[in-house]
Write a structure and sequence with these properties.
The chain has five domains: 183 residues, Galactose-binding domain-like (Jelly Rolls, Sandwich); 172 residues, Galactose-binding domain-like (Jelly Rolls, Sandwich); 119 residues; 182 residues, 3-Layer(aba) Sandwich (D-Maltodextrin-Binding Protein, domain 2); 228 residues, D-Maltodextrin-Binding Protein, domain 2, CATH 3.40.190. Helices cover 34% and strands 21% of the residues. The protein is built from 29 helices and 40 strands. Strands 1, 2, 3, 5, 10, 11 and 13 form a seven-stranded antiparallel β-sheet that branches. Strands 14, 16, 17, 19, 22, 23 and 25 form a seven-stranded antiparallel β-sheet that branches. Helix 27 runs antiparallel to helix 28. The longest helix is centred in the middle third of the chain and has 25 residues. The radius of gyration is 31 Å and the shape is globular. It starts with a helix and ends with a helix. About 3% of the residues have low confidence.
């Protein structure tokens, strides 16, 4: 390692780039050379070539004609109703079909499919035509699953409030045409096929399904409204009024689009004494492509109007859009993306044309299906421009960081010499963004939306930078790195414009008849407000209300939906099985637990608290030692031994791990494969690939680059542990960070930035990973959730491995890392310790943790991943199997930092050492020696406070727990 550091130092001395323009040229464009063109650019090119007009064409290729997979087809008896042989598409397999077309042109591709297996995570594939990806969007195609409520009769909880029903997948064959996964294009994707034979390949990225026929068709033509009316010359306008409650859809393509409870007399049904699920959608119905369908019955065929009682109170005040489908088809162009304007009050939106004249929709006698699909396509042009500008900002920022190194704010720069024309480049961005401001204003009408305001702020920042280009290196926080930078503002605007929330109460299928008012009258509302005011004093959902003596009181440090779900499954399962009553309450502030314990107002248990809280309570005698229970070993073996380390004092364990973080290595498969860069397994291998990454204007990320100047144990302890170091003396009487192994780990931490030029500050790894400037790095669970749920454009093109470590003499790799999560504990002041232990065992059991995790994601969405600390339960969670295996492998090296009364001082001083070495150029040994003096001084003060020392003399040792100690305890308890 030391010889490599010397080599890097020599390279840096001799390597001085002639100009940053070169770095911002070929190398900075490397990612563009790797990626395909976007669909919009390819489509424009094809249209210029006259390929967008083809004769009507339709061809269905049956599974029996798929190439090279005859032995893998399921017989028709196992096709689940398809009536023909089908292909079981899963496990990274692909299917290929050949199709012959008479005319070169653009065609749509569709699939008959039936989802299989776990349906919480979306089924994703990629399409190649004649062996290549035709455009970047073809790298991710979504195959939605259908869901419905398990029951339409909403059950109630102990207070009489309605509960969101469990969700049930609809097992029926569906047909879908390949669409862009972000749904920014209003029509299905078109693919260029040559005259004659073509091959179409569908690659499996995630999920599994049965595949029937593959359809290749010419693009569907959607009529305008007048043509639609003319196509039904004999249809008559009907006069009846049919009312439907929106909270009872027949199907939806996301399990977590859900009913909501509104305490508002304007909605129906309404009960002032109970919470009813009386509306549908809102924030849960905001993701592009989410589709909801209702079945309606009409007595006579003919033309009907459609009116939706809506509340569209999107915080930004911009309009949202829905695509209307009747019996799975868009009836006419004018309702392909229908606008629902902003309003903070309920209103009846009768679907009309621009002149306010109502549309009439043809419905067949009997059952018809009406569907609304969240549609961001009217905002697509703005989103495309923002995306382009953000990528350009990222490239410019990268070039400037290469130029200035660590010299920000320390010298004057002549930017024209290094990056010619930078001011004109920025002015070009502002010109583009101003055009989109005008477009958004035209969409939203009179009042400017938040997106328009934020765009104007971003434009103002960019114009000021363009006016003083020589100041850009000293004002990078205004361009890209700050929390209020132009790049950050544009990123937030992009997310806001993509979101399409809409809340519905009911809808009407009707003729030219009067409709009920959308809002309740003034006196009705006033009366209801007074009643609600007095009822609010009886609310019992916070940790401030009285609980019956025969009931376990549990404070939970989690959002309301978590607490309500936990209360429901406890009532239905635990209380019915044991007879023990439980009352969960929202915890206002976990830091008040110490005060509550001192005042003897503590609950029986606390769930979801930070893993440092049980220690603070236990060292003050306020927590129960769980080892006193006979079956502790059976419960404890469900967790990683290293997760217990911060929950231990002397020979007692004072909490159970509840959730668990993980630090794994994320990497972009497409980028790393295209550049032929191997995925590193050790830190030596990481430093070996850095020159190649940096040659292309890319880099490697570690959590040391997080924006905060304070480097917590979570990001520093892995290096100390992996190099064989430790933090404390075995008897707890001092720190060992000045020993050789620990010092080597801290020196390497600093070398990553000073010698190997890894980034010093990265505002958000997620964004850089998406845009490929940091295509590989180590990050925690939160990044995994973001990439899984909020980066659809690269879904399937990234993967994870255990994080790099230090190779040992025997060839093994030490990957020690913490995984701080939340914990659950019992208070010593509880008079029901045995009952509390029964509840804690039940809650942390494999069965309960799995049910809670699956239900949470099914009801609230993939982003509500439950990173349970129960290892057996984690193996059963709805995550890709290959990812679970990686996390479980990394958890074999889970090693939390033990707590001591002075651990905060050790944490702070390690951070100070890193900052001194990296920013001030101090010698690491000298910086550590200074820190040890401060740590030991604070150590003596804190150990005297808790009775371990007296006048500087050791009264009793403070034994530091180890993983081996925990493992011995579990075996001995057994």
């Amino acid at each position: 390692m030391k010889s490599k550091v010397l080599l890097w130092s020599l390279l840096i001395l001799f390597f001085i780039p002639q100009t940053v323009t070169q770095a911002n040229g070929d190398e900075a464009d490397a990612v563009e050379q790797i990626e395909e063109q976007s669909y919009r650019l390819e489509l424009n090119k094809w249209k210029e070539q006259g390929l967008d007009s083809t004769a009507p064409f339709e061809r269905a290729i049956s599974p029996s004609s798929f190439t090279g997979i005859d032995d893998e087809l399921l017989p028709s008896t196992e096709s689940q109703g398809y009536g023909d042989r089908v292909f079981y598409w899963r496990n990274q397999k692909s299917l290929t079909v050949e199709v012959e077309v008479e005319e070169e042109g653009l065609y749509e591709i569709g699939f008959d499919y039936l989802p299989q297996g776990d349906l919480i995570m979306p089924i994703e594939g990629a399409i190649q035509v004649n062996g290549d990806y035709p455009f970047s969007e073809s790298r991710q195609i979504i195959f939605p699953s259908k869901w419905k409520n398990e029951t339409e009769d909403f059950e109630t909880d102990r207070l009489g409030n309605e509960i969101i029903p469990k969700q049930q997948s609809i097992q029926e064959w569906s047909h879908v045409k390949a669409e862009d996964s972000t749904y920014l294009y209003k029509r299905p994707l078109k693919f260029h096929l040559n005259e004659g034979k073509n091959t179409i390949t569908l690659l499996n990225l995630r999920g599994e399904m049965l595949v029937g026929d593959v359809h290749v068709t010419s693009p569907e033509q959607i009529p305008d409204y007048q043509s639609y009316v003319d196509n039904h010359p004999d249809a008559e306008k009907q006069k009846e009024l049919n009312v439907y409650e929106a909270e009872h859809p027949s199907e939806k393509n996301s399990s977590y689009i859900r009913p909501e409870s509104r305490e508002d007399p304007s909605v129906h049904p309404y009960d002032k004494d109970h919470l009813l699920l009386n509306t549908f959608g809102g924030e849960s119905w905001s993701e592009p492509g989410q589709t909801v369908s209702w079945e309606v019955e009409v007595e006579e065929e003919g033309f009907y109007q459609l009116t939706f009682k809506a509340l569209q109170d999107k915080e930004s005040k911009s309009p949202v859009y829905r695509k209307l489908l009747i019996n799975d088809r868009v009836p006419f162009e004018e309702v392909e993306h229908y606008q629902f304007k902003y309003s903070n009050k309920w209103y009846n939106e009768t679907m009309t044309n621009k002149d306010g004249e109502p549309f009439y929709f043809y419905l067949e006698e009997g059952t018809n299906k009406i569907s609304l699909k969240a549609d961001p396509s009217p905002h697509s042009r703005v989103l495309f421009v923002i995306d382009d500008v953000m990528r350009e900002i990222d490239k410019l920022s990268l070039s400037i960081r290469k130029l200035i190194g660590n010299q920000s704010g320390t010298r004057d720069w002549k930017m024209e010499e290094y990056i010619p024309g930078v001011d004109q480049q920025i002015k070009g961005w502002t010109g583009q963004l101003k055009e989109e401001v005008a477009y958004l204003r035209a969409l939203s009408g009179e009042e400017d939306s938040t997106e328009v305001t934020s765009l104007n702020i971003a434009i103002d920042k960019l114009e000021k930078l363009a006016a003083e280009p020589d100041e850009i290196p000293n004002r990078l926080t205004q361009l890209s790195t700050g929390s209020n930078s132009a790049a950050q503002l544009l990123g937030e605007i992009s997310m806001d414009l993509s979101a399409q929330p809409l809340l519905l109460d009911r809808f009407y299928v009707h003729g030219n008849t009067g409709l009920p008012d959308a809002e309740a009258g003034f006196f009705t509302k006033a009366k209801d407000s007074v009643v609600n005011f007095f009822q609010s004093f009886g609310e019992d959902n916070l940790a401030t209300t009285e609980v019956a003596d025969d009931t376990l009181e549990v404070w939970v440090n989690r959002p309301r939906q978590y607490v309500e779900l936990l209360q429901n499954i406890t009532d239905q399962n635990f209380t019915q099985q044991t007879g023990i009553k439980v009352k969960y309450s929202l915890m206002p502030d976990e830091q008040k637990l110490v005060l509550a314990s001192a005042a003897n107002t503590q609950p029986d248990l606390a769930l979801g608290i930070s893993n440092w809280v049980p220690y603070e309570l236990a060292i003050r005698g306020a927590a129960v030692d769980l080892r006193q229970f006979d079956d502790f070993n059976e419960v404890g073996k469900q967790f990683s031994p290293g997760a217990f380390l911060p929950l231990v004092i002397e020979d007692g364990v004072y909490a159970l791990p509840e959730t668990q973080d993980f630090f794994v290595q994320f990497y972009r498969k497409d980028i790393m494969e295209e550049l032929d860069i191997p995925i590193p397994d050790t830190w030596d291998e990481v430093t070996e690939i850095l020159p190649e990454l940096q040659r292309y204007g890319m880099n490697y990320y570690t959590p040391l680059a997080q924006e905060s100047a304070f480097k917590a144990f979570q990001v520093t302890s892995p290096f100390i542990y992996q190099f064989g170091g430790s933090l404390y003396e075995e008897d707890g009487m001092g720190t060992t960070i000045d020993e050789e192994n620990a010092l080597e780990g801290m020196q390497f931490m600093a070398d990553l930035s000073t010698i190997y030029s890894m980034p010093l500050q990265v505002p958000r790894f997620y964004n850089h990973f998406r845009y490929s400037t940091l295509p590989i790095g180590v990050a925690p669970f939160g990044t995994y959730v973001e990439l899984t749920t909020a980066a659809p454009e690269i879904s399937g093109w990234w993967d994870i491995t255990p994080q790099p470590g230090i190779e040992q003499e025997d060839g093994t790799v030490e990957r020690w890392a913490p995984g701080s999560g939340q914990a659950s504990m019992i208070f010593d002041g509880s008079g029901k310790k045995e009952d509390a232990w029964e509840l804690l065992k039940w809650w942390m059991s494999t069965e309960t943790q799995t049910e809670f995790a699956v239900t949470l994601q099914t009801l609230f969405g993939p982003e509500y991943m439950w990173n349970t600390a129960n290892l057996q339960s984690f193996e059963q969670l709805p995550l890709p199997q290959e990812h679970k295996e990686v996390v479980l492998e990394q958890w074999e090296y889970l090693r939390e930092v033990p707590k001591t009364p002075y651990s905060y001082m050790v944490e702070r001083e390690i951070s100070n050492v890193w900052n001194k070495v990296v920013f001030d150029g101090e010698n690491a040994r000298a910086a550590v020696d200074d820190s040890v003096i401060l740590i030991n001084r604070e150590m003596r003060r804190k150990l005297e406070e808790f009775g371990y020392m007296d006048d500087g003399e050791v009264v009793k040792p403070y034994t530091i727990p180890t993983i081996e100690t925990i493992e011995r305890w579990l075996e001995a308890d057994e």
